[in-house]
Design brief:
Length: 305
């Protein structure tokens, strides 16, 4: 079993070496998310300021309630802009994953041990063709973490109502109830993260089923589920490999962050230089893992279905 996961990682590594343009697209995709949300949040503020309406950003630091009361329309517009940016990023997410999975399936066809060189046009072709399927599969798979997320929201709502008891009776009287709510909230948060990760892997395997087996919609999700159930040891070892490689990548940048903190008091300029060197290294490692691990999951599906 371990050999199969190692082989998948090795095959995905060769695929990246043969098709380095995938790393460039992954970098663009990673940068686009924060950029869209920052632009969506900031553009209404710029339009508001340019139109000459009341705008006092210094009031935010002096008197936050007064800032909220005086700029509530601007805050709503800015939140709406952020939501629009996030929505656009979701569309990019669906296009990117469809294009990436399709291109990687073309680069690592079943029955072969090596990797082929494919052009960037293959990515755009699959991105367009699989966009609707990607949206449907993502929507269905996202139903998995809804139950623990609903529990987390319920706990947060009850905790918010308990704040009035804390104010009225003091924190000592409400401490046992708050401790129970905190424990429940932690449990539901962990379950939400785990089920969200499961849903993401399920979604990607379903895209593999669409590309390789030609099935669609719920049939693709069923095919992916049967693959995961029949090869659960492989999937578990893949998850362990993801965690291990993520931890190792963090271990590469962690010494730089420690050195930067140690130098902050005595050599501020040198500390800033170390931080500036750490940022692109962390970004490059994240991009490498982004393509490598997705490629390994495709290789697992293609070689073991």
């Amino acid at each position: 079993m371990t050999e199969r996961v190692i082989f998948a990682l090795r095959r995905a590594g060769k695929m990246m070496f043969v098709n380095p343009w995938l790393l460039g697209l992954a970098a663009l995709y990673t940068l686009l998310g924060p950029l869209l949300m920052v632009v969506g949040t900031g553009l209404p503020i710029l339009i508001w300021w340019a139109s000459g309406r009341r705008f006092e950003p210094e009031l935010f630091w002096r008197d936050l309630p007064a800032f909220i009361l005086g700029h509530w329309q601007l805050i709503l517009f800015s939140m709406a802009g952020c939501f629009v940016g996030f929505t656009l990023y979701l569309l990019v997410f669906l296009f990117y994953h469809g294009g990436l999975i399709g291109a990687v399936c073309e680069a690592m066809p079943a029955g072969e041990t090596g990797s082929r060189k494919v052009g960037a046009h293959v990515f755009w072709k699959y991105g367009r063709e699989l966009f609707s399927q990607s949206g449907l599969l993502a929507t269905l798979a996202s139903l998995v973490p809804l139950l623990p997320a609903a529990g987390l929201l319920a706990v947060a709502s009850v905790a918010a109502f308990r704040l009035s008891a804390v104010v009225a009776n003091g924190i000592r009287a409400a401490l046992p109830a708050l401790a129970v709510l905190a424990l429940l909230g932690l449990v539901f948060l962990v379950l939400t993260v785990i089920t969200g990760w499961i849903a993401l892997i399920w979604y990607r395997l379903a895209l593999c089923a669409v590309c390789v087996d030609g099935v669609h919609g719920s049939a693709a999700l069923g095919r992916a589920l049967r693959f995961a159930a029949g090869n659960w040891r492989l999937v578990l070892l893949y998850v362990i490999a993801v965690l291990l490689l993520t931890f190792l990548s963090f271990g590469v940048t962690a010494p730089f962050m420690v050195v930067s903190r140690l130098l902050r008091g005595s050599h501020l300029a040198l500390s800033i230089m170390v931080q500036l060197l750490t940022a692109p290294l962390s970004f490059a490692l994240g991009i490498l893992l982004e393509v490598w691990l997705k490629g390994a999951l495709v290789a697992l599906y293609v070689d073991n279905r």
